[in-house]
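Section 5.1 Outputs to date
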Amino acid sequence: MKIRRGLSGGQYKPLNDQDIKKIHETSMRVFAEIGVQVNFSEARELFRHAGAEVEESSRVVKVPPDLVQELISKAPSMVTLCGRAENGELDCEIGGDKVYMGTGGTALNVQDPGSRDARRSQLKDVMNMARLVEALDNIHFYMLNVYPNDLPDEDIDVNRFGAALNRTRKHVMGGVYTVEGVRNVIKMAEIIAGSPEELRKRPFISMVTCNISPFKLDKSYGELAMEVARNRIPVVVPAEPLCGATAPITLAGNIVVQTVDTLAGVMLTQLVNPGTPVLYGCISSITALRDMKYLSGAVEMGLMNAASAQMARFYQLPLYSTAGMSDSKVNDPSLRMNLRSRVSWWHWLGGIASMMLLDSWSSA
């Protein structure tokens, strides 16, 4: 198989140096003066022990700028998401100016090829999509992109990862839902790798835990992030502030919220286990002001993703971001053309958005 070792990125930069400085300084003021609501005591205690100011009554944690910088500096500026090819040809080395493309998730419905009707996704769809990802040269990693509605919640994590690992050698990334599920997935991956040490040396799985905008660390997702960090498995901590809903209507205001929310997740992973490979995550967008619906194909989404790539570069963190999405509700010619030209036609078949990973020195 011929694998493209990342696409060239870094050309588009909507922010100038002064813009980046203003967003950084405003984000630091938010951490110091407004703070982040941390909704579980174990994490608040970690911040308190590190030197942050904790108000137990409101659960608000205020972090001085120097401490913010100290904590995020512990995170590696390069993260390698490994595949399982013996010669390493399937590895995603997120560094330099390379961009890596993958599937995206997690959708609740799928469309079978040739059908105009959607149905609830099942575990068999995870399997089929993994097989297709394995065969597509322009897809570098498999982001678990559908939810198996035919399984009980407690069985989701290990079965999704297991179904994927059995059908592709490419790196498998996925959202996780229970702490026990995280442990089971890691245990399974250790068996496949041959030992816990071999898995840490060449991690062929990574996990995604979301942050809640604006300015909150959620208990359930926070506990998941902490469990992944304890095991030193690569983790993405994305935030999804929406202009006009959970963030200011201005793009700059959204980027401030995005920066604070994501860096809060980065800090949490480093408090748990310094050096944990973590990716700054941006899935920001804008709302349709007529009905407040989420828009995924908006120009503003691309602008904010590109700006977030620059902020990730400023903090020397790898970036996980969104690409190739559409608001089309049917498989029409414009949607097919858009997705074929930007990512891969499988996203049209599955009705799934794609995700891209950029290193700390590139911008979308």
